[in-house]
Amino acid sequence: MNPTATASGTGRLDKWLWAVRIFRTRSLASDACRAGSVAINDQPAKPARAVRPGETIAVRQGLVRRTLLVVGVPRSRVGPKLVATYCTDLTPEAEWEAARQHRVQQLLAREKGSGRPTKRDRRLLDRLLA
Fold first, then answer.
1. Mean pLDDT, rounded, of the chain
2. Which of 16, 38, 45, 127 is least surrounded, with the fewest CB atoms within 10 Å of its CB?
3. How far apart are alpha carbons 93 and 3 in whole angstroms?
4. What is residue 102's predicted lDDT score, i.e. its pLDDT?
5. Where in the chain do CATH 3.10.290.10 domains reside?
């Protein structure tokens, strides 16, 4: 067993989400759980729910619904290089692509009634997309 993993192999959901760097703070992780943005095995989960290895966690972050497989439960927050030892990202590539497309569409959207893009606007768009 990994020396930084908990002895019982379980831990709180909000602590796990914070420890594997899904959220920057534990309070953000708790708020997401309370808002219904986090589910374990397709069931809504509260912040204090126990997390066990082998469970699947779905987290809605903005436009992306991340799917994570719990591999282990760390005692405390781990470095970015060690995250892979505690969770496996099962998020389909289509989710990431949809988020990228939406981001580009927001940049290209023009305010209604602003007219045609000027030559300068077109050059800036070309530079952005190149």
1. 86
2. 127
3. 33
4. 72
5. 1-91
